[in-house]
Amino acid sequence: MSLNRIILMGRLTRDPELRHTQSNIPVTSFSLAVDRDFKSQSGEKETDFIDIVAWRQTAEFVCKYFTKGRMAVVEGRLQIRDWTDREGNKRRSAEVYADNVYFGDSKRDSAPGGYDAPPAYGSAPAYSAPNSGYNAAPSGFAELDDQDGELPF
Q1: What is the CA radius of gyration of the chain?
Q2: DSSP H or E stretch at residue 138
């Protein structure tokens, strides 16, 4: 058995652009700026810039509703790609292939002035790419009974 799952939360570093392969399959790539949980020795907060690739309906969803600076939660798998640059040097890249993309912020937190909220897909505002029987999408949230006005924690 093997397991290759990754979940990231960060802000888009640029607007995603929808492209199509020669066989007309939608695809987009973008980067997430993901803050580390700790500070460097100099006391600075460090950020990793992680490349994300989304295909088909997931790519269309991301391009329609996400823009630079928007917080996104990406669930997918890590893929290593070997390639040769223009000078003939061997290179290696790590990318996350997105299976699910969720909103990581609310409409009011995303941008000054806001925008029209996208529709919710299922129980959470996200698009889950079709996969081979494995579904790790959350089942939803239970509503709290707020009779006394106190939270249960």
Answers
A1: 18
A2: none
* pLDDT tens-digit readout, 39-79: 888 888 899 999 999 999 999 999 999 999 999 999 999 99
Give me the residues paired with residue 74 across strands.
8, 101
Task: Go through the chain and tell me how many residues it has.
Answer: 153
As a whole number of angstroms, the distance between CA 110 and CA 95 comes to 25
As a whole number of angstroms, the distance between CA 22 and CA 12 comes to 26
* pTM of the full structure: 0.67
Nearest to 9 by CA among 93, 81, 76: 76
Residues 15 and 30: their CA atoms lie apart, in Å, by 8
Q: Distance (Å, rounded) from C-alpha 64 to C-alpha 37?
A: 30
Q: For residues 95 and 74, what is the distance between their CA atoms, to the nearest angstrom?
A: 12
